[in-house]
């Protein structure tokens, strides 16, 4: 069976964001439920229609079960594989398979977190084997990758700073983004150093927030109220858990997930009109642009320079402001999907990219450990 | 009967840093495992590495002085091949650079257990 059997068979038909940023007084589940209510309303569907639930939340041992209980859903299909922040992009694959196989009719993908007001520390509580003694933090792995990329390819600090600057410029066009003040390359470089060479401006926000995506088969999607965003390709790959086990810190498993997703979609990087790349740290965007084939390995610094991925640049990346400037609850993956769908519908307001046909949503998990690439398209891409 | 992780800790406690070598595919392996991650064989034997390594990447973790001040976290490629997370003791954290030649030393003990750190060669 060809892997392109999933191409265009399912679609995102509803998306919902909870209130996000600083939302004190709400639990993870309450924020998640708010996003689900909005996604269902957007899709023109009811809770009773949902018979597939794909979710994970940090504070539960049986997260997808907790989500089902909280929402009062007894689904036919439940999936909650935890592969870090990319989990929700990964659920696209399993939701598409379950929908296409007829195991369920309406799939809900959701996540919620009060990691800002709940003061929950990001990153897993379980230490990575043989790394615990050195007091490494989540940022450490990304700083090590950044240092290596600079060493190996001569990527400069100023080039890297283009990424948070571009994210901020997009955020300034998004009235809901958390950080909307001006930000220059100098500001990024002069911000407080966290883990050399990364400053606090290279690190994602810690936000409260939740997101939900409703998917169904293409044959049903066309009768629903909103313009469907068809899933054209999706692929996942993992290369390691702990950063010491990553063979080359300048090459992520996106170098495999990307080509496989493009192959399923029958598309190439040149066909992509808008991208959402999981930017937990500035280096992520640079590595994923290279690994997904938007520029050659080592050329990422030059590629992002001169505002190339900012508003007015050649390639629109993270148009909501990304994890760096819009919002980043504990895991950001679901929000890459929501922004992609929003752009493909033409709903992005001032930050809207002109007439996009193909959008790419890419999730990252752990310490660059898991990479999941998805491609969505409008009806004319089918 | 005990597994490789427990053996590894026992060696460290005796002052010996050991890694594994696979008899089936000749790869060196760290961290200690039951199956070779390269070929899947269980024919992993303990060897004593030279202790020599090279810093593959490094960062200064910034920390308030009252909490202990800045510290180094790095990745070291052992001469035999495997890479491990560690730190380089001796020079200030900012003076540790990619490509620096280093040598392993066992640190820790007590509640923290034993673990491997590195020192610059020639110090």
Sequence stretches where pLDDT stays below 50 over 5 or more residues of chain A:
none
Helix content range of chain A: 25-40%
Number of strands of chain B: 8
Low-pLDDT regions of chain B: none
- According to CATH, the fold-level topology of the largest domain in chain B is OB fold (Dihydrolipoamide Acetyltransferase, E2P)
CATH superfamily grouping of the largest domain in chain A: Thiolase/Chalcone synthase
Structure write-up:
The complex is a heterodimer of chains A (382) and B (123). Chain A has 382 residues and is an alpha/beta fold. Chain A has helices at 28-43, 63-71, 87-100, 138-153, 157-171, 185-190, 218-221, 254-265, 282-291, 300-304, 322-325, 333-345, and strands spanning 10-17, 52-55, 77-79, 106-114, 193-195, 198-199, 208-217, 229-238, 274-277, 358-365, 370-377. Chain A has twelve helices and eleven strands. Helix content of chain A is 32%, strand content 18%. Chain A has two domains: 3-119 and 207-231, Peroxisomal Thiolase, Chain A, domain 1; 137-203 and 233-381, Peroxisomal Thiolase, Chain A, domain 1 (3-Layer(aba) Sandwich). Chain A starts with 9 loop residues before the first strand and ends in a 5-residue tail after the last strand. In chain A, strand 5 and strand 6 (198-199) form a beta hairpin. Chain B folds into two domains: 1-48, no CATH class; 50-123, OB fold (Dihydrolipoamide Acetyltransferase, E2P) (Beta Barrel), CATH 2.40.50. By secondary structure, chain B is mainly beta. Chain B contains one helix and eight strands, in the order αββββββββ. Chain B has one helix at 4-13, and strands at residues 19-22, 28-29, 44-47, 52-61, 71-78, 83-86, 101-108, 114-120. The radius of gyration of chain B is 16 Å and the shape is globular. In chain B, 32% of the residues are buried. In chain B, 8% of the residues lie in helices and 38% in strands. Chain B starts with a helix and ends with a strand. At the A-B interface, helix 4 and strand 5 of A face strand 4, strand 5 and strand 6 of B.
């Amino acid at each position: 069976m060809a892997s392109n059997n999933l191409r265009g068979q399912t679609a995102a038909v509803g998306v919902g964001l909870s209130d996000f940023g600083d939302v004190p007084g709400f639990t993870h589940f309450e924020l998640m439920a708010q996003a689900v209510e909005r996604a269902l309303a957007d899709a023109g569907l009811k809770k009773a229609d949902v018979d597939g639930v794909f979710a994970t939340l940090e504070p539960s041992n049986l997260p997808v079960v907790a989500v089902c209980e909280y929402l009062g859903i007894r689904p036919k299909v439940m999936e909650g594989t935890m592969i870090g922040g990319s989990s929700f992009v990964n659920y696209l694959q399993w939701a598409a398979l379950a929908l296409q196989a007829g195991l369920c009719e309406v799939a809900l993908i959701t996540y919620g977190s009060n990691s800002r007001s709940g003061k929950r520390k990001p990153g897993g509580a379980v230490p990575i084997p043989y790394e615990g003694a050195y007091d490494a933090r989540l940022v450490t792995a990304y700083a090590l990758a950044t240092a290596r990329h600079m060493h190996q390819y001569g990527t400069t600090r100023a080039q890297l700073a283009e990424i948070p600057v571009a994210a901020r410029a997009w955020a300034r066009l998004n009235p809901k983004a958390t950080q909307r003040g001006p930000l220059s390359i100098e500001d990024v470089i002069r911000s407080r150093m966290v883990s050399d060479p990364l400053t606090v401006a290279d690190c994602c926000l810690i936000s409260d927030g939740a997101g939900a995506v409703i998917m169904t088969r293409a044959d049903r999607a066309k009768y629903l109220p909103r313009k469907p965003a068809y899933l054209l390709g999706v692929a996942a790959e993992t290369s390691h858990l702990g950063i010491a086990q990553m063979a080359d810190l300048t090459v992520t498993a996106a170098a495999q997930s990307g080509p496989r997703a493009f192959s399923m979609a029958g598309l190439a990087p040149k066909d992509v009109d808008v991208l959402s790349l999981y930017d937990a740290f500035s280096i992520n965007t640079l590595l994923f642009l290279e690994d997904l084939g938007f520029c050659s390995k080592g050329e990422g610094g030059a590629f992002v320079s001169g505002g190339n991925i900012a508003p007015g640049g050649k390639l629109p990346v993270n148009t909501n402001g990304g994890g760096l400037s819009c919002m980043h609850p504990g895991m950001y993956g679901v929000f890459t999907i929501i922004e992609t769908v929003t752009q493909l519908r033409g709903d992005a307001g001032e930050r809207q990219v002109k007439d996009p046909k193909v959008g790419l949503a890419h999730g990252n998990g752990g310490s660059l450990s898991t990479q999941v690439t998805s491609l969505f398209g409008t009806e004319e891409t089918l | 009967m005990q597994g490789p992780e427990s053996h590894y800790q026992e060696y460290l406690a005796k002052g010996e840093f050991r890694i594994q070598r696979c008899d089936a595919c000749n790869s060196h392996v760290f961290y200690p495992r039951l199956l070779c991650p390269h070929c899947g064989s269980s024919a992993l034997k303990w060897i004593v590495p030279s202790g020599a390594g090279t810093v593959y990447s490094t960062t200064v973790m910034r920390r308030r002085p009252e909490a202990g001040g800045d510290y180094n976290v790095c990745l070291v490629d052992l001469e035999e091949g495997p890479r491990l997370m560690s730190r380089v003791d001796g020079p200030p954290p900012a003076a540790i650079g990619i490509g620096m030649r280093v040598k392993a030393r066992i640190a820790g003990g007590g509640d923290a257990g034993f673990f491997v750190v590195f020192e610059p060669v020639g110090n």
